[in-house]
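Why do we care about 3D structure at all? Because function follows from shape, and shape follows, mostly, from sequence. That is the central idea of this module. The next example makes it concrete: a single protein chain, its amino acid sequence, and then its structure expressed as C-alpha cells.
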Amino acid sequence: MSGVLEWARAENLQPEPITLDVWKKLPRDFCRLVEVVNGDVVRAETPPLPHRNAARRLASMLEAAAETHMSRYNDGWLYVGVDQDVLLWEHPRLTVRRPDVVLFACAPADVGPLQAPRVKIAIEVVSPATERVDTADKQAEYALAGIPWYWLVYMDRDRVHAIQTHVLVLGHYRPHRRLDPFVGETVMDMPIEIRIDWTRLIGLIL
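And the structure:
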C-alpha cells in the first residue's frame, strides 16, 4: 500500500487484514466507529442513550473508587476509560475491542491502543443488539487476553436491573457475584472497593 487511505476502498471492501501500524494511522473518527477482530474491521454501532448513560455513570463510580483506593494505598495509578480502544492481541491477527468502561493501570499517553495486561476490569453494557457478542465473543476474547475481571451490565429499558461479575480463573471466566439493585449501595470489594449507587442507574433516558 502506498498510503493509509488506500487501505479502505470506496466499495467498502477490506483489501487485506489490518495491522496495528495501519490502525494507528487511520483517522480517529473512523476508528471510533469500528473494532478489529482477527484482522477484520467490524462496525461498532452507536448504542442507545440509556446504554451510554449507564456506562458513563458506572465509569464515574469506578473513578471515585480508583481515587479512594489510590489515596489509601501506594500501589500505582489507576484510570477509568469510556469507549477506550484495548489491544487484546497483535498476532497472528490484530484484535482491538472497545469495552464500554475499563479500569486500567497507568499507561503512557502515546502508546495507544491500551494494552490488555494493563486492564483490571472490562465492562460491557448488554443490549439486544450486542448480547451474543458481549456474552460469548467478547467474554472469550477478554479471557484469552488475560483481563482479570469482566462485568456484564443488563438493562431493563431505562434502568440497570443486574450486574454479573466474572473473575478469570485458569484462563476462563467464572461467575463471581450477581449484583441486584436495591435501595442504597452495593459494595464490590474486588479488585478494589467499588460502591454501586443504584439510584444513579435508573432514569437513564434523561
